[in-house]
UniProtKB/TrEMBL annotation:
Residues annotated as domain PBP: 38-275
SUPFAM superfamilies reported for this sequence: Periplasmic binding protein-like II
Pfam families tied to this protein: PBP_like_2
Protein name as annotated: Phosphate ABC transporter substrate-binding protein, PhoT family
Alphabetical UniProt keywords: Signal
Organism: Flavobacterium degerlachei
Keyword match Transcription: no
InterPro entries reported in the protein's UniProt record: PBP_domain, Phosphate_ABC_transporter
Source species, domain of life: Bacteria
Signal keyword on record: yes
Length: 309
């Protein structure tokens, strides 16, 4: 301490060197990553994986970027973000105030980009003659009321966004154990319902609009149910048009949450998905984009018709 006082310029130089050293320790990742170049990992809610797979494939084909996609349940995903194991995520909800405060305490302001709207769907085995389901009936079943016509529900994962969404509708903190089952993935739900009568599967509609090739045989043996909402007199399927018109009662918005804290691939990928190409991919997938991509029309003054020889 005495030497620092005696040689103030030396003290300043040492502090400056320490700051530079700290910055250089963090610099390799930032230096090798821009909004359109580099490597990063993105976490995705497992119910949304198919559409984000498509987005990443096109993004990587256009830019010098490599994105590793890791699918997790919503609860696992949030915990990973809060524990600094990842800083970019695709969710079916924005961060809560409490979650946002955690990042703000680290001097990071999360950037949230809305990218579209999907829905939660109910499916049944083909043997079930009724293709209609009343959301109020589902809630009565979860609340343990005997007048419900639902016999059992199958979810993808006890920590998933679908479980959290349905619990919120029913006013429950935890899913009841009686006649409620959960597996690991949305594919597991499709397989189980296709092979078992009487159960109602609950999953992200993206898995139905974009089934993988290995799931097509299972898809042939299920019905996607039309749902009656709590304040609706009609039954509606989870189609793109019904979601757009606000008729389907289980629609939910999708978000990219970027907590990198610098201009990296999180910013570039979010801009891409929210842009023209990304929105076209969402539209083509059967989900609802935030904005409908425009179409360019060429108007000609004349049409040349070649004479047949």
């Amino acid at each position: 301490m005495k030497n620092f006082v005696k040689y103030p310029y030396l003290a300043v130089a040492l502090v400056f060197a320490m700051v530079i050293a700290c910055k250089e320790g963090d610099s390799p990742k930032k230096a090798n990553e821009t909004i359109l170049k580099g490597k990063t990992t993105i976490l995705v809610d497992e119910t949304l994986k198919p559409i984000i797979d498509d987005q990443i494939e096109i993004f990587e084909s256009k830019y010098d970027a490599k994105i590793t996609l890791v699918a997790k349940s919503e609860r696992e995903l949030i915990n990973a973000m809060l524990n600094d194991t990842s800083s970019i995520a695709v969710l079916s909800r924005p961060l809560s105030d409490e979650e946002t405060k955690v990042f703000q305490s680290k001097k990071i302001l999360p950037k949230t980009t809305k990218i579209g709207t999907d829905a939660i769907a109910f499916i049944s085995n083909k043997s079930r003659k009724d293709t209609l389901i009343d959301l109020e009936d589902v809630i009565r079943f979860l609340q343990g009321k005997e007048q419900s016509n639902v016999k059992g529900l199958v979810f993808d994962n006890p920590n998933s966004s679908t479980v959290r969404y349905i619990n919120d509708l029913a006013g429950l903190k935890e899913m009841p154990e009686k006649d409620v089952f959960s597996f690991k993935t949305n594919e597991d739900v499709i397989k189980y319902v296709s092979e078992n009568d009487g159960m109602i599967g609950v999953l992200g509609v993206n898995w139905l609009s974009q089934p993988k090739p290995n799931m097509k045989n299972f898809m042939k043996n299920i019905n996607v149910l039309n749902v009656k909402g709590l304040n609706n007199i009609g039954y509606f399927a989870p189609t793109q048009n019904n979601i757009a018109e606000g008729k389907y009662p289980l629609a939910r918005d999708l978000y990219i949450i970027n907590c990198q804290g610098y201009s990296g691939l999180g910013m570039g990928f979010a801009s891409f998905v929210a842009g023209d190409i990304g929105q076209r991919i969402i539209l083509k997938s059967g989900l609802l984009p935030v904005r409908t991509p425009g179409r360019n029309m060429i108007i000609r003054n004349s049409i040349n018709i070649e004479e047949k020889k």
